[in-house]
Amino acid sequence: MSLQHLDSNEFDEIIYDNAESSLVIFSRESCSVCQGVVPILEDLKSKYDGKYNFYYVDVEEQKNLFQRFSLKGVPQILFFKDGEYQGKLAGHVEEDAVEEKIVEVFEE
Question: Which part of the chain is the Thioredoxin domain (predicted)?
Fold first, then answer.
């Protein structure tokens, strides 16, 4: 189950206009660390299906989104709830760390 790719228009609509509770990974195809993190999110997407949304932003194609958040490096997983930025995880992360952040952001 792959993650839906977002462009800047879709990002604004989903995250801000619809205020969906979402995880968005900022990544690039050529990033070896990213290739280890994306499958973790794909697994979690099926676990949390219907509760939270999981999206992918390719920083090569969407440089403006990457710059909007002043991100340095990839992968970066940003968390949004009710249209508000709630924090991020950067670099190589384990599934447990992502799940802890999901609970912290969305379930408390």
Answer: 1-107
